Amino acid sequence: MSTNRPSGDLTPATGGAPVADVPDRFEDPGLPHHPERMADRDPKAAKRAERQVVTLLLVSILASIGGIVGFLFIPVGTTLLDVRLSTIALGVGLGLGMLGIGLAAVHWSKTLMSNTEYVEQRKPAASSPEVREEAVAKLEIGVAESGIARRPVLKGALVGAAALAPLPFVVPLVGELSPSWDTRKFRHTAWGDVPEGTGGRLPDGTLGRRLATDPDNRLIRAADVTNGSAFQVIPHGISDQEHYLEEKAKAVVFMTRIDPSELNISPERRDWSYDGIIAYSKVCTHVGCPVALYEQQTHHLLCPCHQSTFDLANEAKVVFGPANRALPQLPITVDTEGYLVARSDFHETVGPSFWERERMDENR
């Protein structure tokens, strides 16, 4: 509240009475009476409030540790439930860690920090050395009034909670984005393997991994794919493999059929499609989100995360958005029984572009 006191005058406000008259306008009503809190009158109440704040901070500490432990030690198996348990543990730990600090800060300010209100004259916008010195002095007053210097247990709990709360968010990022993280796993997918019972024989006698619908693992005949139809495709029998979810995440494919006259195909890819049936990786080359929104009329495939748009009629090249390379294409054909099969693995690394650049650097 602004008053007519000299600039820089900072004194406790008096309750009730007007501070000064403002000519030709109205009287400043001043501040209402500010009652004392129980913690101001009773040292036992203040100690009890301190214990409550410490308890909230300990909850934050335990939650942060629990989130990290859950992320590191809950095994990620082959079912979605295993993934959810690890993710829930991390999310709950992060949420409770931040919530504990927030509640502790609110309770601390309401019960333990100074209960005195101050008023001062507004100052010019430009600050001078004197103003900066005054600001530092006020900060020192605030630190003193918070009572943290004479409450070492409270100070230790606050430091511990603040240090641990961000870890459930930081630990996964450090583990996955560090230079030592092995990105070579993205250079090979399940399409390059043909376990027994999952392949179809090509006319030249070789075997290729059969295409199957996700999630029911149903084989797909070329005759079942009509113009404009859309399929989410996985390697046949992939659910029986070790690390099923990881392998599926890399190998998942979007497949559709476009009139061959509308396809712009380079000579080296003439045999990568079959009668207009094309298949491309669903892993966006921007940051790895699953591309899934298909515009049948334009043949555009959109990523819902950052709106990268790929033209399937033009070898899935980028026509809009932050992605800077086309989606990798899966070479496909039909086997001797009429089922769609993969001729080989992807010829490019699936996923975000920085992985591909790393591969190119290594090759050089």
Task: Identify the overall geometry.
Answer: elongated
Number of helices: 8
Write down the Rg: 32 Å
Give the mean pLDDT.
Answer: 81
What is the CATH topology descriptor of the largest domain? Rieske Iron-sulfur Protein
- The first-to-last residue Cα distance is 67 Å
Reported CATH architecture of the largest domain = 3-layer Sandwich
Unreliable segments of 5+ consecutive residues: 1-8, 358-364
The helix content, as a percent range, equals: 25-40%
Strand ordering within the main sheet: 5-6-7-8
Instruction: Indicate the structural class.
Output: alpha+beta
What pattern of helices and strands is seen along the backbone?
A: EHHHEHHHEEEEHEEEEEEEEH
Name of the CATH first level of the largest domain: Mainly Beta
Overview of the structural elements:
By secondary structure, the chain is of the alpha+beta class. The chain has 2 domains: 167 residues, no CATH class; 178 residues, 3-layer Sandwich (Rieske Iron-sulfur Protein). The chain is built from 8 helices and 14 strands. A 4-stranded antiparallel beta sheet has the order 5-6-7-8. The longest helix is centred in the N-terminal third of the chain and has 32 residues. The N and C termini lie far apart (67 Å).
